[in-house]
Write a structure and sequence with these properties.
Blueprint (H helix, E strand, L loop, with lengths): L2 E7 L3 H11 L4 E7 L6 H5 L7 E3 L13 H15 L8 E6 L7
Parallel strand pairs: 1-2, 1-4, 2-3
Length: 104
């Protein structure tokens, strides 16, 4: 069974990297929006070596405001991306946003 993780991130790339590395498996696919207000390169770099990680392209990335419609718009964009034709059919979806280590 294949599983899609839909992630919206904007800070703490090291924490994001640890989560992706911990969840990485041959049947796990990650679809990621790095908020357009921040540089996405640190998030891409921490995923080096992990297969099945798909970041929204520069023209697809969304600027997300907490509690705003932009969160819904971003989720829809990520769902479109992960339901586009893939080599493997996805069976389950898990959406995460606001991942934080509590400021520690």
């Amino acid at each position: 069974m294949n599983h899609a993780f839909i992630l919206q991130v904007h800070k703490e790339p090291e924490l994001f990297g640890r989560i992706v590395h911990r969840l990485a498996a041959p049947n796990h696919y990650f679809f990621v929006n790095v908020d357009k207000k921040v540089n996405d390169m640190p998030f891409r770099e921490v995923c080096n070596g992990v297969e099945n990680v798909c970041f929204l392209g520069e023209d697809e990335r969304k600027e997300v405001n907490w509690g705003g419609f932009s969160q819904i718009d971003c989720t829809l964009q990520l769902l479109r991306k992960c339901t586009a034709p893939l080599e493997h059919r996805l069976h389950t979806f898990d959406k995460r946003s606001g991942l934080s280590n509590g400021g520690q």
